[in-house]
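Researcher: Quick sanity check before group meeting.
Model: Go ahead. Protein one:
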Amino acid sequence: MNSLKRYLFFFLFVSGILLPEAKGEVSARKTDSLISQLSGMEDGEKKIQLLNELALLYRESDPDKALIYSRQALSMATQLQSISSCAVTNKMMGEIFEIKHNYQPSINYYLISIKHYKTLGDKNELALLYNKLGHIYITNHYDYDQGMVYFNQALENAESVGNSKEMATSYNSIGGIYYYQNDLDKANIYFRDALKIREEIGDESGIAASLNNIGEIHRLKGDFNKALDFYNQAIKINETIRHKHYLSINYLNMGLIFSTKGDPVKAKNYFLKSIDLNIQSRDTASVISGMIELGKHYNKQLDFDASLQTFAEALELAIKYNDLNGQKDASYGLSIAYDGKGDTRKAFEKFKQYNALHDSLFAKTKADQLDELHSRFALNLKEKEIELKNNEIALLQREQKIFHFRQLLLFLSLFLVIIITILVYSNLQSKHKKNKLLMEQEAALSKAKHELMEIELKNKTHDLTNVALHLVEKNKFLHELKSELKSLRNAPVEQREERIKELAINVQQNINLQKDLDDFQSHINEVNTAFYRKLKARFPGLTKNEEHLCAMLRLNLSSKEIAALNNISLRAVEMGRYRLRKKFDIPTTYSISDFLQEL
């Protein structure tokens, strides 16, 4: 269900926000004409405009070539210090990187473009860009709260200038967040608000997308007849406007309903129609997701041969196009199908592949989130550096003017001596203010760097806590496994063999406990190096075990969790805490964990 919802959520936002136009061949005549105009043209606003037009033409069919033209335009706009050209070109760069699925630079360029459009006061473009940013945050699982912030900013800007199209996009996107959070009633309200606006402005593709989304709400609530009614309305519009991508989503959702209702023939037909449309559109990601839903349908019908063939094709495509989510879901589907056919060995192999891909995706998501955080900080730091440089330039220019003026004063008579003295004094005051300003700015920069280090340390500490809890759960599982094995002695042979297979799969997921423990201990020592120095300086009589206990208490781990991680009794941990409390001379009313965190 989670996998399915992830696909539907993706479709939801694509259908409401950022569906690229169908890729077509770039007009050779038009590109040749633009390139011919560029030849010999001097740098200026007109040349920047032509470079951006070329980037737009190549954006879908050849993003790398579009990037070359866009970078030339951005370099020229920066040299000319043209705010409007910088705004347009940074936006174009962000769109190209988004099409290339390179989201971090896309976010950066969008943020820079927003800064320029704020200067220009263009709220239409601000609404569009905030919707684009929210789309990236949601579809790539960076931060749903931040996505909601961007969508609300987009809505605020769109409402202030009466931009109905972007208002509808924002309503649809906010509804999508509530949909993902299982708040279907709120999602339905926002989807219907988006539908109302789209009907008023005659946005047919938007109307079809909203109808599909409302149909999704009814499907998830189990009201299949209403859902089918909304899907059929969407299908009628999409067939009329020949929107293959939206139509494929409608067919997929129809297939899901008929699969749930137990009509395998209709379900299969709709799944195949969806896949065929995506093949025609060369939308590989949607082809893979459609094949995975078809494979799930075959598994539900116990048609494991058809399921194996479908999932195998999906896996091959996913590997070819480096779609990790597709590989993960296809591997899981193959595991279920092999298990249904009684091939436990292959089922187990595919399940291991599924687990490995799941872990890889989790690690990638965390890395992307950390990169985004660093990038945001780096962008703020860059702006501060630019501000500092501008201040330095202004100060240097002022000093040069004073110097020239002083040179002129050397040729004046004694009558001007008093004036020269005053100017010298003024110059000294200016230098003093400059030094004071530079010192304040250096202090602010140092503080910002220190705050970044604290954030990184906090993130590492949080990660250690999560790892510790994970290891406790593993240890708990092993004790439960021991009890389960004892209970198998008296179980019938048939149940015993089936249960042993299940236990084997669970054991495989929880192996390498000792390695995880060793890695955890190593990470604790690495993160707490400074803490250990402070602890030894203040309490030199502590033993190594007591220092280690202090580090784990500082992570807010309970006595039970610490006992599980160190394979000791709960009483031993409590005695250790008691001895530490006496050595630290901490009142009984004060938490030892709080004491260690404040140390």
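Researcher: Fine. The other one?
Model: Protein two, sequence then structure:
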Amino acid sequence: MHATDVISKPITWEVLRHRVQRLLRLRNAEVLLQRSEARRVSLLNQTLEGIITVDEEGRIQSFNPAAERIFGYSAAEVTGKPIRMLMPGAYRQRECYLPRETYLGGDAPTSVTREITGYCKGGAVIPVEVTISGFYAGEQRLFIVRDISARKEAERRLRLAAKVFESILEGIVVAGMDGTVQSVNPAFTVMTGYTEEEIKGNTVAVLWSEELRASFSGKVWDWFRRSGHWQGEVQVRRKNGTTFPALLSLAAIGNGRDQPTECVVVLTDLSEQAKLREEQRRLQEHTAKLERLASLGTMSAGIAHEINQPLNVIRILTDGMLFWHKRERPLEPDKVIENLEKISAQISRIDEIIKHMRSFANIGRDMGKPEPVSLNDAVNGALGMLGRQLAVHGIVVRRMLAPGLPVVRGHTGRLEEIVVNLVVNAMQALDKVNRTEKEIVCRTWAEAGKVCLAVEDNGTGIDAALKERIFEPFFTTKPPGEGIGLGLCIVQSIVTRYGGRVTATNNARGGATFTVELPAVPQEENGGK
């Protein structure tokens, strides 16, 4: 209270009122100032940006919580310290802690924003953006610091993504959800012949072959819209009209609210892989033919025996008729006709054997569409070819074939090849066993919509260490020159092609059991049979 505020002489009510009003205004101004300071402190504490005030000597006067989080120092640790302690490199020199632009002079010194590196407690260095206010005499300078680590990382990832987009070997197309092309990478141009200018604005449908165009507009696109992704091998059309095999991958890109806005199309050229697969297929077919020829060699003794029997009957019948003819005692016409019919029947039998063997030898050729066939007939046919050879090896074969077995969809020749390979594999295993009783059991049955075949022997069984590899191509335990290791691989390939599976286990008699399961043809598809 000032001396003038003391009432030392009589005053009027008007003078008193003015003095009271003046005191109230001073009080209100003080309250407003306190509130303003409180708001300032609150803002400094809540802002995400580091706020640092520095005096004319470059010493820190205030350090808000955001600055503490950015640099790791508490306000008490840095207050009164030089601001350059937070700035590594050239900025740590006393005369360089402020950019030159802030010294330009004049009535309105310049505020400057810079991206520099900040020096944190513990030695970590982070990228920061600093805005430094203009300098006014008698006032503090304001530093506004933003941690831009996340932004720099995002920029780095964007640069990396751009480099990947430009250098990756797969063709990439970015398109709208309606298929309109927005951008492509250089690999796409090399792959298809379309430049970005030529393809941009068109739809990706210009790349589809006729077959893909039909399916893509239907089930493929429906699946993609539901799931947000799709992948498959397709034929892609180049600019010049030729096509090439490619792995097509589709992925939807969302806007963060589960609303896809673009899709990414990735094309991987499979031309070389297709050539390699074709070459591998030809090699496997050629090797499979060699394997079948080896099987024919194994069956040759049995085949000779099967053909020799009807030949002996034919010889006996013809020699008998010639004998009576030389003695001028001709046979009655009915007897001659009877003998000729018998000869014809034996010739038909030889013809069936030859056709059977020719069919087996030519299994690698296109056999047409699979049709309902009997697995029991295939077992009987294969054992008929192998019977003599099994007998020579001292092996007894037991057939336990279920009557009325449902048919399966396939080819008789292919199914016989399965049986031949499994039986020959069992025969070779039994050749290693020194025992008098050697037996192979061929058993068929039906269960739960499947038709099953088991070929089991009482040999040495399968080594546990080799069990996982026995179906691999060219894997064999035989000495060099005695096998090429394709028999079981062929079995698995045929069974898989017919939608079935084959497994191998050791049985209670010490030998191995190979089980083949094939889908049974429903009765309604086979005329109710």
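Researcher: One line on it for the slide.
Model: Residues 100-106 have pLDDT under 50 and may be disordered.
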